[in-house]
From TrEMBL:
The active site is at Y105 (proton donor), K176 (proton acceptor). Pfam families: malic (PF00390), Malic_M (PF03949). Signal peptide: none annotated. It comes from Methylophaga lonarensis MPL. GO terms for biological process: malate metabolic process. This is Malate dehydrogenase. Residues 272-534 form the Malic enzyme NAD-binding domain. It is an enzyme of class 1 (oxidoreductase). PANTHER family: MALIC ENZYME-RELATED (PTHR23406), NAD-DEPENDENT MALIC ENZYME, MITOCHONDRIAL (PTHR23406:SF34). Keywords: Metal-binding, NAD, Oxidoreductase. Its EC number is 1.1.1.38.
Length: 586
């Protein structure tokens, strides 16, 4: 599907001049400043003489990008480009999203987080360290932007499947927000990555002389909660309508934080809710390929953490929508964690795990030692048809397990969703070989199509990046004040409907839309989510054409706008929202 054509853009009023203007990544046009702009903004001599178009600049940037062979070096290059000229960065991404998404996002962003201190170049986002806890308001005031609409916040405690990365976890909010812009046209000027630097328990980081964060053991319990409270209060006071995305918080914090704040501020947890939404959407698409419903499946999870339990609960909701009772739905879902299959008589489970534990009475009839029921036994004795990996344990799905699963159904659904690729529970080529090409697969990180019997089988990337950009667009365009489960369920339905599965012939259709279609998909998700929000009294009153209009109005495109000298001393890109800006032009 095509992206919207560039329309003639109204001028921006800009007060910065000279090297200040060139140093501002949101305003910098580099060699694309026109002759008139070079005069008006005191840029003469600060740039080489030739005036270039965005396309010419992108050709050079792509040439430079291709001069790096290692993905991490490509990542460093793209991040530097982002920090120098955001329009050019996003234009380049738009032209090569398929190629560059794995470089700015998973898997390479994992490596970038692990090496964050070593590869650090320029500041981006806000680092709020525990020792600054009494000055958070002042820290927020130091942010250039006056009008933040989306924050992605982490404390770096569970970065992808890589564990505690401390302040290096900042790579994740930066990467996620790049996708808000690349996949849903959110203006980068209104986004803010935030790192709550509460220390790290990663011994390598504590010993690393180059470590960039607060080199201290993590604070915990009441001190931690009080610190997060201070941040939420300050952010909400400064930006009352902001959307806050919690990202990559460790298991014991993720759900409690969501529960504590979801009534107070417009927020969601991407690992719990975004992942549930994309996975249920992808499961629905996989069921279409089988000609079955989700209610017909028996599912085994490896990993009963934030992602696993979030997905499982949304499956329960979906199965109920398909006619099962809640008890019937729960009885079809088996959660396996380090201590084996979760059962109702186990001690020490979190509440969110307890409600997904299988009844101990039922398991008594299995011919196994009930004190530890392994993943392999769970697959076998549950007669599973679906296997989902959210454990961060590479190679956890072995050949015997997968063959057992295949013996129980003709087309097993297998989703090894752990990120980055180095943490995947099984690689797609093995899964396809072990099942003679019958497995229906989706992974969390991107994998190339697999060739089997002269046929190329595409591998869907079941990643929350299909969902959160559209949710952000919905919140901004629809003025939504709170994110509900129904909105995320709606997003997964839109995703399933957009799946090529069921629309195209053949045994192995792509399960998810191509990345080229994601920009449009995000708008469709945004529209549907706004409709749900309206029905729940949580969004602005608008009719359908007004919703479409609001969505289009909020799409930022990476194109240079003409600049005019501002009379006031504040760059318009920071000073005003889109609406105010339009008024000023009239
Ligand atoms: N594809 C996607 O969109 C997403 C993927 N993920 C990935 O899922 C993984 C888990 O994320 P979270 O659930 O947030 O982490 P988490 O830490 O909350 O949960 C992981 C769970 O796996 C369990 N586990 C570890 N070893 C195991 C084993 N051998 N067998 C069974 N369970 C085992 C842990 O005890 C823990 O309960 C990560 O690798 C993450 O990157 C997470 C969110 C989205
Ligand atoms: C994709 C994602 O959010 C994760 O792996 O944590
Ligand atoms: Mg995450």
């Amino acid at each position: 599907m095509s992206k919207p054509e560039q329309t003639a853009q109204a001028a921006l009023f800009v007060s910065s001049t000279g090297s200040d203007l060139l140093a501002n990544s949101l305003l910098n046009k580099g060699t694309a400043f026109t002759a008139e702009e070079r005069e008006a903004f005191k840029l003469k001599g600060l740039l080489p003489g030739r005036i270039e178009s965005l396309q010419q600049q992108a050709a050079r940037a792509y040439h430079q990008y291709n001069s790096f062979s290692e993905a991490i070096n490509k990542h460093i290059y793209l991040r530097m480009l982002q920090d120098a000229n955001e329009t050019l960065f996003y234009y380049l991404l738009e032209q090569h999203l398929d190629e560059m998404m794995p470089v700015i996002y998973t898997p390479t962003v994992g490596e970038a987080c692990e090496q964050f201190s070593e590869i650090y170049r320029r500041p981006r986002g806000l680092f709020i360290s525990y020792p600054d806890r009494h000055r958070i308001k002042e820290l927020l005031d130091n942010v250039d932007h006056q009008d933040i609409k989306v924050i992605v916040v982490t404390d770096g405690s569970r970065i992808l499947g890589l564990g505690d990365q401390g302040a290096g976890g900042m790579g994740i909010p930066i990467g996620k927000l790049s996708l808000y812009t690349a996949c849903a046209g959110i203006d980068p000027a209104v986004t803010l990555p935030v790192m709550l630097d509460v220390g790290t328990n990663n011994p390598q980081l504590l010993d690393n002389p180059l470590y960039i964060g607060w080199q201290h053991k993590r604070i915990s319990d009441h001190d931690y909660d009080a610190f997060v409270d201070l941040f939420i209060e300050a952010a909400q006071t400064k930006w009352p309508d902001v959307l806050l995305q919690f990202e990559d918080f460790e298991q014991q914090k993720a759900l409690p934080l969501l529960q504590r704040y979801r009534q107070q501020i417009c927020c969601f947890n991407d690992d719990i809710q975004g992942t549930a939404s994309v996975t249920v959407g992808t499961l629905l698409a996989a069921c279409k390929v089988k000609g079955e419903q989700l209610r017909d499946q028996t599912l085994v999870f490896a990993g009963a953490g934030s992602a696993g339990c979030g997905i499982a609960e949304q499956i329960v909701t979906q199965m109920q929508a398909e006619g099962l009772t809640q008890a019937e739905a729960r009885s079809r879902i088996y959660m396996v964690d380090r201590q084996g299959l979760l059962s109702s008589d186990m001690q020490g489970l979190f509440d969110f795990q307890q409600q997904l534990a299988q009844s101990a009475d039922k398991l008594k009839h299995w011919p196994v030692d009930s004190t530890f029921i392994s993943l392999a036994d769970t697959i076998k004795f549950s007669a599973a048809t679906v296997l989902i990996g959210v454990s961060g344990q590479p190679g956890l799905f072995d050949e015997a397990m997968v063959k057992q699963l295949h013996s129980q159904c003709q087309r097993p659904i297998i989703f090894p969703l752990s990120n980055p690729s180095s943490r995947v529970e099984a690689v797609p080529s093995d899964l396809l070989h072990w099942t003679q090409g019958q497995a229906i697969i989706a992974t969390g990180s991107p994998f190339k199509p697999v060739k089997l019997n002269d046929q190329w089988i595409p591998i869907a990337q079941c990643n929350n990046s299909y969902i959160f950009p559209g949710i952000g667009l919905a919140v901004i365009a629809g003025n939504i004040h709170s994110i509900t489960d129904e909105m995320l369920t709606q997003a997964s339905e839109v995703l399933a409907e957009a799946s090529p599965a069921g629309q195209s012939a053949g045994e192995n259709p792509a399960l998810l839309p191509a990345l080229d279609d994601v920009f449009e998909l995000s708008q469709t998700i945004a529209f549907s989510v706004i409709k749900v929000a309206q029905s729940q009294g949580l969004a602005a009153e608008m009719d359908d054409s007004q919703i479409h209009h609001a969505i289009k109005q909020h799409l930022w495109r990476p194109r240079y706008r003409p600049y005019q000298v501002a009379k006031q001393a504040l760059d318009q890109v920071y000073a005003e929202t889109f609406d105010n800006e339009c008024k000023q032009q009239k």
